[in-house]
Amino acid sequence: MNDHIRETNGTPLADLKVTAESAAGVSRLDSLTGLRFYAALVVVILHVTREYAPVPLIRELFAPGGVGVSFFFILSGFVLMWSMRPNLPKRDFYRNRFARVYPLHLVTWAMAGVVILVGGLFVDPWVALASLALVQSWIPLEAVYFSMNGPSWSLSAEAFFYAVFPWVARPIRRASTLGLARGMFGLYAVIVVVTIAGHILLRGGPTVAFFYVNPLYRLWEFLIGMSIAVFVQRGWRTRIGLPISLSLVSMVFVAVAGLNFLIENGIGPVSVLGMRSLPNDITSLIMVPFFVLLIGSAASSDLRGKRSHLRSPLLMSLGKWSFALYLTHLLLVSLLSMVVPRGMPWQLSTIVAVLTVLSAIGISALFYRHVEHPLEARLRAPRKRAQEVAAVGEEEPHYAGN
Predict the structure, then answer these.
(1) Which residues form the Acyltransferase domain (predicted)?
(2) What does pTM read for this prediction?
């Protein structure tokens, strides 16, 4: 990483202090809001193409879309650390986090119940309540953690992150830059070893429950996001521009999709791995360094005042809608699957897929305007007490696919 960082004042990283601008919390990193839409869109396409794949290539290309969870866990830690207010009471912090996530979750949870009833399915009441309480990801049963509105499993992990944030934020902020860097790289190395060892020992076992959806396991990505925010606050700027970072992430994503295709079809040396597909948590381990670079590049670009299409009014709006897009799109796909058959000619399937994605985006705009935003504004702590500053336009949680 040292080859790609530049100290803004020529001093060693270990001696950098939080800049006045970032300490005041007034720097808006709007490019991160634009990035949200692209990340959410990958998840939407993943789920849509599972039902209506225009051509096999499209389905294979977006097969690793669940890796978006890592991007948003990292981004969530970054945003909360960047906009942290040391004098904000914990009760106000928790109230604001509840207001940010829970209202839309409650509405989509109820909608999922209606979809389940319409589809003639059944969910045990205790399973539905676990999803409602956002504790489903702690229960290592697929029928539980993917129950009701499936994507909400990641909100269960996010709720855990919110709970621990006030307790880990101060130690991370007070750590030396060198110590923080060592801790971040050490944490990543430990997770790599634990994950690979876990897959070897649990071959054919419940690795999704223990790794992919487990909030305690996923905490490492949130902590890395917090650490990156501190680096940026202390003056770290990557020399790699935002366009190059976007290209790198895209190329690695395509490469991972190709690797997944080889594993699924038992082609080449990867056939000896004996896997049916590339696990999402392994995919995350590959993508995390590039996600860190992308977030750092976007923040650096904004702080340098550079222009970016990510900051355009259109991308800003789409980014604001992305949480609603994440929580509502699978409900739309589920409803459509009840009336629109699979196995259509690829031309017709393409039309259905495109219309579904566009419809999901339109629905997300309505939910943002009439449900998510007004309910959050009503439930947040009074502004005179809640002095959190929205560092990326509006604070958003992650949106991940399952």
Answers:
(1) 31-368
(2) 0.87
Biggest distance spanned by C-alpha atoms of the chain: 65
Distance between CA atoms of 27 and 14, rounded to whole angstroms? Answer: 23
166 with 127: CB under 8 angstroms? no
Q: Are 111 and 150 in contact (CB under 8 A)?
A: no
Contacts of 99 (CB under 8 A, 6+ apart): 375, 376, 378, 379, 380, 381
Tokens of 167: 């307790």
Convert the pLDDT of each residue in 69-86 to its tens digit: 899 999 999 999 999 887
Distance (Å, whole) CA 201 – CA 66: 23
* Per-residue pLDDT tens digits for 88-128: 899 999 999 999 999 999 999 999 999 999 988 889 999 99
- The single-letter DSSP state of residue 211 is I
Considering only CA atoms, which of 297, 316, 360 is closest in space to residue 334? 360
User: What's the one-letter identity of residue 135?
Assistant: V
Q: Look at the chain and count its residues.
A: 402
What does the alpha-carbon distance between residue 77 and residue 71 come to, in Å, rounded to a whole number? 10
Rounded (to 5) percent helix, strand, coil in the chain: 75, 0, 25
